[in-house]
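Postdoc handover notes: sequence design on the structure in folder B. Input tokens:
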């Protein structure tokens, strides 16, 4: 049960603010964009000296691993930001690492009920949930929350048929019809205040013909500042051979990232081109997947004069920008990825061209903003052709630096945070 006495991190009783705005952020995940979004919102709240109180309800793991985010609030003692970790008994009520469909649905219901309890206890005037996709059924069928809710919709697909070359399978058609019905019902719910979406094309469709605007396009925040000295040092430290162009594949490394397809594509390249290629693989990876990748890498190295550098580890925020600066080409060969990709934004901010999947939103953004080459990334031969083009021809002919700049400026941290707080208060 939720304790009546809300405790701060120091264990002292926390008086509930009487301010008119008491915004509660509820987030039970800490990896990927989750912690990054919390950091951006906390920093913006503090730096803009926003009025009211900002409660951030998180897990104990967040407290252990994301102390630098809490340190931001400590620099602004008058900012009224409170981090509230779940108690051990509250965390015990949640399904741990849900793996099956039913477990994920059960976990969503558990988190929703916990969110409602915290919102009631804190007398929150508004609650922000980062992952709308996770809570679709609770939005419709679970208990009504005590305050309005705003959330981010990450993976709309109902409008993909509008994109050039998209041919849905029967399964995709059925899923999209279900998605349209679910959205129509949820958008009628009075407790849904704003549905933010990183896909501006989906927002256009959802708002068309509606008298009440509930869906708002949201920037996917990207930071651009980088030190030239640090990325040059990183290149040297990584032992990248001087004559080689760096093709960077960055992020949470998994099969869906297209690592296997990239290795097959490199294996098909002419050997003389491989002499000028460095494949830089950077990011966390589970042991089983890492083992599969390494077996294929050993094979490719034995057959091709390519340099392959593997760094299976978590990368700090500053180092992320350094990696994109040292890259000549950024790889985003996702396998049927749905929604936005921060990789495209990091590449645009660094003004580096991409080889990307041509599927869905990613393909449309690459085409519209001329970010590089969009190909069928499920086919290694298509990736081979794209790699060869960048190795044989000037990269500048494959992208527009001006349109990259526009894309990056549309997705700044300031626009992201300002949109969320402004819309929640409207």
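Designed sequence:
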């Amino acid at each position: 049960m939720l304790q009546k006495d809300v405790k701060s991190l120091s264990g002292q009783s926390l008086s509930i603010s009487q301010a008119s705005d008491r915004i509660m952020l509820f987030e039970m995940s800490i990896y990927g964009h989750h912690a990054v979004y919390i950091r951006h919102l906390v920093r913006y709240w503090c730096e803009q000296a926003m009025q009211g109180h900002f409660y951030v309800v998180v897990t104990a793991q967040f407290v252990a691993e994301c102390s630098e985010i809490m340190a931001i609030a400590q620099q602004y003692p008058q900012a009224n930001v409170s981090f509230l970790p779940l108690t051990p008994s509250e965390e015990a009520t949640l399904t741990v690492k849900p793996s099956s469909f039913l477990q994920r649905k059960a976990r969503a219901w558990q988190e929703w009920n916990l969110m409602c309890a915290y919102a009631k206890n804190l007398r929150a005037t508004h609650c922000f949930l980062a992952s709308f996709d996770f809570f679709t059924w609770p939005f419709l069928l679970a208990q009504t929350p005590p305050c309005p809710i705003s959330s981010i919709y990450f993976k709309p697909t109902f409008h993909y048929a509008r994109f050039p070359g998209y041919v849905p399978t029967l399964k995709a058609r059925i899923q999209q019809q279900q998605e349209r019905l679910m959205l129509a019902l949820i958008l009628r719910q009075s407790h849904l205040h704003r549905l933010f979406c990183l896909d501006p094309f989906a927002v256009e469709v959802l708002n068309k013909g509606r008298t009440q605007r509930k869906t708002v396009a949201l920037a996917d925040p990207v930071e651009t500042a980088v030190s030239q000295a640090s990325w040059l040092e990183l290149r040297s430290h990584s032992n990248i051979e001087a004559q080689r162009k760096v093709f960077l594949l960055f992020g949470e490394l998994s099969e869906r990232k297209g690592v296997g397809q990239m290795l097959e594509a490199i294996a098909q390249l002419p050997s003389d081109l491989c002499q000028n290629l460095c494949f830089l693989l950077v990011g966390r990876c589970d042991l089983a997947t890492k083992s599969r990748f390494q077996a294929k890498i050993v094979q490719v190295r034995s057959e091709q004069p390519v340099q392959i550098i593997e760094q299976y580890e978590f990368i700090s925020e500053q180092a992320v920008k350094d990696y994109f600066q040292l890259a000549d080409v950024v790889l985003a060969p996702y396998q049927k990825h749905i929604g936005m990709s921060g990789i495209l934004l990091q590449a645009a901010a660094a003004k580096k061209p991409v080889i990307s999947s041509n599927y869905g939103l990613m393909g449309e953004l690459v085409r519209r903003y001329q970010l590089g080459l969009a190909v069928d990334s499920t086919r290694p031969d298509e990736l081979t052709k794209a790699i060869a083009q960048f190795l044989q021809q000037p990269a500048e002919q494959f992208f527009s630096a001006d349109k990259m700049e526009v894309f990056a400026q549309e997705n700044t941290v300031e626009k992201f945070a300002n949109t969320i707080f402004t819309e929640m208060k409207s």
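Context for whoever picks this up: The radius of gyration is 23 Å. Don't rerun without checking with the PI first.
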